[in-house]
Design a protein that fits this description.
alpha/beta, single chain, five-stranded mixed beta sheet
């Protein structure tokens, strides 16, 4: 299962590649937010094409993918991002894919976690990545859906219903990789976008720890939460490499 984490979720690509290089067969993927995006595209058989596209993104390209919403439901509509992904993979229905897949979203009205494992792949992905205030909520099947990370940033439970030899969780909100700010210096107050991202991270990190304690997957691969900011999607090359190295180090123990 692939956890949420913004741009850190690009490390999931490297993790998947390392698992495949070791001869492992991935039978089922559950994912939340960026984990749902990467996992869904892998289940659709188009991870290489997506990886190549992501590696070419520069800062200006990331900005160009953000289509402003002029209402009060969120800053961006998310249509350009989903459109770009559809160009890579084409339209897919989850139940027609060779690998089982579940995306996690949150039903705002019912205040509960929703598992999306049938129907159009990109409806499920769009719902799962709908970060509150950043992307507009996604209306789907009579529900108002937002980012699954609000309730389950590391969706282990969906995998428990499937017969597998190993359950591997990739936590993109892992322990920090470097020391915090010098205690003698006053830390800088974050701007509005950083503050929103850090608020989501703080909440999701706490929930992820609870999920790991409750379900105890066989292997946990951690991606440090301080390797990049939430929106640095133009750093795909190094983040994919990081994911592969983290997976290699964890699985070699």
């Amino acid at each position: 299962m692939l956890g949420s984490g913004g741009a850190r979720g690009l490390a999931h690509i490297g993790v998947i590649r390392e698992l495949l290089s070791l001869g492992m067969e991935i039978k089922y993927i559950s994912g939340c937010s960026m984990g749902a995006l990467v996992g869904g595209i892998y289940a659709a058989g188009e991870l290489d094409a997506y990886s190549e596209w992501a590696r070419k993104l520069e800062r200006k390209d990331v900005i160009s993918l953000l289509d402003l919403s002029f209402g009060f439901q969120g800053l961006f509509k998310g249509e350009r991002i989903i459109g770009a992904l559809k160009e890579i993979t084409g339209e897919r229905d989850i139940e027609d894919m060779d690998i089982g897949f579940t995306a996690i979203a949150t039903d705002l009205l019912e205040q509960k976690e929703i598992w999306l494992n049938s129907g159009p792949l990109f409806d499920a992905i769009r719902a799962s990545i709908a970060i509150p205030t950043i992307f507009t909520p996604w209306e789907y099947r009579g529900r108002i859906l937002v980012d699954g990370g609000l309730l389950n940033p590391l969706p282990i439970a969906p995998a428990l219903n499937h017969a597998t030899d190993l359950i591997i969780a990739v936590n993109a909100s892992g322990r920090r990789s470097r020391e915090g700010p010098d205690k003698e210096k006053s830390p800088a107050i974050p701007g509005i976008f950083d503050a929103m991202a850090m608020t989501m991270d703080t909440m999701q990190n706490a929930i992820a720890r609870l999920k790991l304690a409750a379900y105890s997957p066989d292997i946990v691969i951690e991606i440090p939460r301080d390797v990049c900011t939430f929106y640095e999607f133009y750093r795909a090359e190094e983040l994919i490499e990081l994911g592969q190295k983290r997976a290699e180090a964890t699985l070699s123990v």
